[in-house]
Design a protein that fits this description.
Blueprint: H1 2-21, H2 32-54, H3 67-91
Helix pairs in contact: 1-2, 1-3, 2-3
């Protein structure tokens, strides 16, 4: 149960920071989309980190709410938000 709460909190923090960093039309603030983008970003960031360090993609496990986890989740969330912006621009033309 605490792992799920940690993922939601980490996802919220990563999503908000990523939305502030990536330029675009996405709204700021804390909502369910921000949390989901942050959680997906944490998975993407964790997968990329394991690929870079170990050479294989391993599904990340909740490592806790610490600085390296936040940085990894934010980097992944930035990638996810940037891809989301590109896809939404392609389909909104």
């Amino acid at each position: 149960m605490l792992g799920i709460i940690a993922w939601v909190i980490l996802g919220a923090v990563a999503g908000i920071i990523a939305k502030l960093i990536v330029p675009g039309d996405q709204g700021g603030g804390l909502n369910i989309a921000t949390i989901i983008l942050g959680i997906v970003g944490a998975f993407v960031g964790g997968g990329l980190y394991s690929f870079i360090t170990e050479g294989t993609v391993v599904l990340p496990v909740a490592a806790g709410f610490n600085f390296p986890s936040i940085i990894t989740a934010v980097v992944g969330a930035i990638i996810v938000v940037a891809i989301w912006e590109l896809v939404s621009k392609l389909f909104n033309k």
